[in-house]
């Protein structure tokens, strides 16, 4: 799979899972992954799962654009767009993922979420 397909496919699957069941997002991380949401950093699967569950709401919709860059044997993926719950106006948001490539798999090594105000 080429890097563009990997980055685009990852973003589509990630935000699909965030709407359906945030517990599914856990499989995209490892124990050494680091998540930063609005300046608050957490590491470890349980802490990341808890933080993501408090951030995402299964009523949210996302309108996103994905760009990426290769970085040695990894990929930096930046997802920008907006998220909205129900009929609320969308909030601009940025997600930056550093994807670690392993044999036959990829996981989120670093993830930064920033609301754009």
TrEMBL record:
Top-level taxonomic group: Eukaryota
Family annotation (SUPFAM superfamilies): NTF2-like
Keyword Lipid biosynthesis among UniProt keywords: no
Main location: cytoplasm
PROSITE patterns, A to Z: NTF2_DOMAIN (PS50177)
Entry's localization field: Cytoplasm; Nucleus
NTF2 domain sequence ranges: 6-115
CC terms in the record's Gene Ontology section: cytoplasm; nucleus
GO biological process: mRNA transport; nucleocytoplasmic transport; protein transport
InterPro entries given in the database record: NTF2 (IPR045875), NTF2-like_dom_sf (IPR032710), NTF2_dom (IPR002075), Nuclear_transport_factor_2_euk (IPR018222)
Any matching Pfam family: NTF2
Keyword tags: Cytoplasm, Nucleus, Protein transport, Transport
Function field: Has a role in nuclear-cytoplasmic transport of proteins and mRNAs.
Transmembrane segments: none
Name of the protein: NTF2 domain-containing protein
């Amino acid at each position: 799979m080429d890097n563009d397909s990997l980055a685009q496919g990852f973003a589509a699957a990630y935000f699909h899972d965030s709407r359906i069941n945030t517990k599914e997002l856990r499989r995209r991380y490892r124990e050494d992954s680091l998540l930063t949401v609005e300046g608050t950093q957490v590491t470890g699967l349980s802490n990341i799962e808890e933080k993501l569950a408090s951030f995402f709401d299964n009523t949210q919709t996302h309108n996103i654009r994905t760009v990426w860059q290769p970085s040695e044997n990894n990929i930096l993926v930046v997802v920008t767009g907006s998220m909205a719950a129900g009929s609320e106006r969308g909030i601009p948001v940025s997600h930056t993922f550093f994807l670690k490539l392993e044999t036959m798999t990829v996981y989120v090594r670093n993830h930064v979420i920033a609301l754009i105000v």
